[in-house]
Design brief:
This protein is of the alpha+beta class. It has helices at about 5-10, 20, 85-100, 130-160, 185-190, 240-250, 275-290, 320-325, 330-345, 380-390, 410-415, 420-425, 435-450; strands at about 10, 25-35, 45, 55, 60-70, 70-80, 105-110, 115-120, 160-170, 175, 205-210, 215-225, 235, 255-260, 265-270, 295-300, 305-315, 355-365, 370-375, 375, 395, 405, 430. The chain has one domain (about 5-305, about 355-420). Helix 6 packs across helix 7. About 50% of the residues are buried.
Length: about 450
């Protein structure tokens, strides 16, 4: 394709001399840091584990992409963690505001939700049988992690240089709705040529960052499926990490960053073996590579960021009698019940809701929307946002603060694990308000209008 046709089509075309990139106005910087725990902490993601981690399968990373346009800056922080708790999100925003003048809307933390990473301080506090020593190790690691993230953001900001940004979208089909399909029956179903039931989001959003000379510098991509294909006792970034490494082998010197979509009800399947995990990683990496090999949409040097906290009420909370009954069970719910009973005995009333649920919207270029929501978000939200705000909209769950499962109205009415599971995250509730979807989508609509 020649330059005239590329410009006419609005596609990303980088001339050999690189002058086009220098004129775009984007300045980008990338920095990374290894965050694999040096000690044997408890692992986050599976309640069935009975002991701490025993080693490393592949390293965990925090990767930062700093984006600058005339008049604005945005920082994308991706982590190989099951999630960031509220205290850490708030502390990072405070420190980055003090050190770099960044507002909360300019800081976007995207977690991979790997189930083979460490448990952080004051997160998932009831689901695991943690003693004082394990809690101390978790707190020590969490403090170190916070310092590493702040330092890595500073390094990314310091490395900003002229760049061109291009966007595209691929497709990967290994996401399976785990509410409507029996994973044990999945191989036979696929062998018969049948499709899994229920909604999924197969989109693979891709952002390519190129230097002024046209050289590829970084690739940011996402997918909506649980990073839970491995259930052992070794640290791993799961299929997302293998996808990154597959791409980095194809593109020497390029950094790759991953964000999780709305995958609370989505499994990466079939799963259970390292070979399957690596196969899904290669499949996702190949989907990204296909996008990179084709003309991509060039993003104009415009960045707008908006953020809002949405108060979400609990629709139903456990009674003292219900907690007393649960407290005698042999499960993580018993630990949850006993802790809540101690709060009642101490005269502390339960919170009536979650006061600060984070919703964030970025606009890159003229029309590329990126919507992010906190918590474990079901796929319905991604599909709804794309219908309302544009098919090419990027949607991320597990962003900024991961505090609970976030159901749509459909899931709220159906019930089941992804509609609640409050004992997993320790909140004093049995159900969200039935208005949860309406409240969140209204906030998203307000922010989309703001950035447009």
């Amino acid at each position: 394709m020649n330059l005239a046709l590329a410009l006419l089509a609005g596609l990303c075309w980088i001339p050999a001399n690189g002058t086009h990139a220098a004129e775009t106005g984007w300045r980008c910087g990338v920095a990374t840091a290894k965050i694999t725990p040096a000690k044997h902490l408890w692992m986050g993601g599976f309640a069935a584990r009975t002991k701490p981690a025993e080693g490393t399968l592949d390293d965990l990373w925090v990767k930062v992409l700093a984006l600058e346009t005339p008049g604005n800056i945005g920082v994308v922080i991706t982590t190989d963690l099951v999630g960031i708790p509220k205290w850490l999100y708030d502390s990072l925003c405070t420190r980055l505001g003090a050190s770099h003048g960044l507002s909360r809307s300019q800081v976007l933390i995207a977690n991979s939700h790997t189930h083979s990473g460490p448990v952080l301080r004051d997160a998932l506090q009831d689901i695991y049988p943690l003693d004082d020593a394990l809690r101390a190790l978790s707190a020590e690691y969490s403090s170190w992690l916070e310092d590493v993230i702040v330092k890595t953001v500073g390094e990314a900001l310091a490395r900003r240089s002229p760049a061109t940004l291009c966007a595209g979208e691929g497709k990967a089909t290994f996401a399976v709705n785990r509410r409507t399909n029996n994973e044990r029956e999945l191989p036979a179903l696929l062998a018969r040529g049948e499709k899994p039931k229920g909604p999924s989001d197969f989109a693979v959003p891709v952002l390519a960052v190129r230097a002024a000379d046209g050289r590829l510098r970084a690739v940011l991509f996402g997918y909506a499926a649980h990073t839970s294909t491995l259930n052992g006792y070794k640290w791993s970034a799961d299929y997302a990490g293998y996808a990154r490494r597959w791409l980095e082998m194809k593109h020497a010197g390029v950094e790759t960053l991953f964000f999780q979509g709305c995958g609370s009800d989505q499994s990466a399947a079939p799963r259970g073996t390292l070979e399957q995990c690596m196969g899904m990683g290669e499949s996702l990496g190949a989907a990204v590579q296909t996008v990179l090999e084709k003309p991509m949409r060039q993003l104009q040097p415009k960045l707008r960021t908006a953020h809002e906290f949405v108060p979400l009420d609990f629709g139903e909370q456990p009674t003292k009698a219900e907690l007393e009954k649960l407290a005698t069970a042999k499960s993580y719910e018993a630990r949850w019940a006993r802790r809540l009973l101690k709060e009642l005995e101490a005269g502390r009333a339960f919170a009536k809701g979650y006061a600060e649920y984070p919703v964030q919207v970025w606009r890159l270029g003229l029309d590329q929307l990126w919507i992010t929501q906190g918590g474990e978000v079901c796929v319905d939200y991604a599909l709804m946002h794309k219908t309302k705000h544009g098919a090419g909209t990027w949607v991320a769950g597990y962003a900024n603060d991961v505090m609970a499962y976030i159901p749509s109205r459909r899931l709220w009415e159906e019930g089941g694990y992804q509609a609640g599971a409050f004992a997993v995250y320790g909140l004093p509730a049995k159900r969200w308000t039935p208005e949860i979807e309406k409240l969140i989508c209204a906030a998203v609509a307000r922010l989309v209008e703001k950035v447009r």
